[in-house]
Queue: 4 jobs
Job 1
Amino acid sequence: MDEELLREKGLNPGNPRKASLPGYGLRIAERATLLPAAGETSYGIVMQITEADLKKLYSEESVSDYVQEKVSVITEDYETLEASCYNLPGNLITGSNMAYANALLQLAKKLGLPDHYLLNIRRFIGSDT
């Protein structure tokens, strides 16, 4: 998630930290999700957010199909945290959205996520952006 975008939506995320989620792979179709995938790791930002803010965020039509899943993430300081991850069920992953994939790539670059993860995102764009 993009901390700035959350703030623009009137939410108040706290304590953002880079983290990885082993055993999950990124999939980008019309929308993005993480799916269980042996041997893959996904990267992003873990942050604190209130239950009320989560309900507000996931009540939006564009993300209302996402389902909360409890996961264990590893911060860049090697701390293991229990977290909630909102994922789209696999049967709802359809189509493609290169504009979204490109925006995600730009955010991942800005956040300093690992180069191999950037390459993974690029394959959903089909270019060397």
Job 2
Amino acid sequence: MTGRGGLPGTFASVEHARHLIADALAGCLPGEVLDDVLLAVGELAANAVRHTASGHPGGTFTVLAGIKDGLVQVAVLDQGAPGCPAITTSTELFAPSGRGLAMLAELGEWGWIGSARARLTWWRCPLTPAASLPAAPGGSAAEAL
């Protein structure tokens, strides 16, 4: 597992988090999987900045990534919030936000653990691209996960 803590809770740090993980995992993943991983890092880091105390003045977050047992996993440790991360059920076509966790759920599996003081939000997927997974009977490759 590799990680970097103490990233300032700003949106500029979201891009920095993606670069840190890209550098750490370079050459370890197929390109399609790395693209999904970096998308997940960006989404989880942006959510930490937007929705938790990490985004308050002086706030920080930590980004982590690792590969084990055929899975790649990324996580963001933030400074917590009173609410729970959840997939938004809004159907507004041009809503400016609210689709990130649903998108991550389509690309892999996500979850969280924590409280109002600290929270770890994670996402993981197989090392092989989803398109190469066998489709479930009557379903898509993503449903085979």
Job 3
Amino acid sequence: MILSTLDINKKNNKTIIVYIIVTILLYIGSVVYLKLGHGVSSNYMKFVALIPLVMGVVVFTILKLVKKAKYSRIAYNLYNASVETFVAGSICQGILEICGGHSFLTKSFLIIGLILLVSSIITFIICQIRKPTSN
């Protein structure tokens, strides 16, 4: 079934580790990019590592601590896609700010990320109120 629930503890351990690695890599990348930016900086590039830290590590640690929380594969994938969209949008906006360009398309990252985030939250809530089926 598409909305089958995942085992929180097994999946969260791997997810938290992946988000920690992504946070570290984004932080290193933003530091290197800011060093090579000839004194020009962007807050989008400076704080891009906070997105997976807060939306990934913190959220999935809280879900791990809440033993009764369960979520579906679809909610998990939608949530991860929203985090990825916010990160990509932040990097694109940061690059545009540093090079002095502007684009209205960077706003689409925010809109799509919010749509994915709201969709994952709705799916998560549905999974919480849905009664478990007996096999």
Job 4
Amino acid sequence: MLNLISPLNARLVHASDQIFLDMLYRDSRADLLAIPLAPAAVQQMIAMQQMSQAMGIRETYPNAQHWILLWDGEALGRLVIDINDIDIRLIDIAVISAWRGKGIATQVIRALQDYAIQLDRPISLAVQCNNADALHVYRRAGFSVRSSDTLFDQMAWHPASVDMPLG
């Protein structure tokens, strides 16, 4: 499905990946780590948020595909997508902080766009309005904001927006 450039690879999530996924979620929630509470309370809050996110994904996207992103066999992130008859929904992409800024998410998004071209489907996503880094990555990849509220920008990318080579 995703044609990634080696040594970046992806595989479906296994039950044995839960420890990594827990670490990845904690790593991606610097906002919660900064709350002035006892460490145990912060960890409990993070665990509850992670459970809430997982339940929301299961309920909203019961057929979602959960992928682990690997660099030379080492887990460094995750990708969650839902492919339906209308579009490809990019539900979540997360990369551990040590690997951020190295083009991992950009490469995954480009591979997902190549797949969307094959299926002739747009890609849609929601991103927090205050997530400047993610917004920059998505805009650079050709996504545009379709609607906004106080928390999220709904963004989309369409295969028709790609200049296809002539003949």
